[in-house]
Amino acid sequence: MPLQSPRDMWQKLGAIREDIHPITLLLAGICIQSLLAVILPGRLVILPAVLWLLYRGSLAALVTLGYARNPYLQGAYLGGSQAIIPNKDGSIPENNTSPESGSDRGIVCFLVGWSINQ
How many structural domains are present in the chain? Predict the structure, then answer.
């Protein structure tokens, strides 16, 4: 069996995670935390949760300050855009305000879209 790249492994784990109900993941985390409570002494039980919160908080701070890339904006177009009305022959006008361009006619633009954050 050939070795898998880490990216392929994480994609497969992500696919498994999407198939499992969130309550099931929560219960699995509770079981792991309970096992740690049996294994680790006293106050060290909270250490994994604190480390995870510190990791997520520092990652959010780095994204906010611009030191890390925001994974939710990957592939998003953040610049402006405009609707250009083509000429009667279908060509795109160089000067969109010239009288022979299609811009002397009225237009209605419906911008319809949605986003699904995973």
Answer: 1
What's the number of CA atoms in the CB half-sphere (13 Å) around residue 73? 9
Q: Is residue 47 part of a domain?
A: yes
- Tokens describing residue 83: 């609707």
- pLDDT per position as a tens digit, 71-108: 888 877 777 666 677 777 777 777 655 555 555 566 66
Decide: 47 and 40 in contact? Cβ < 8 Å: yes
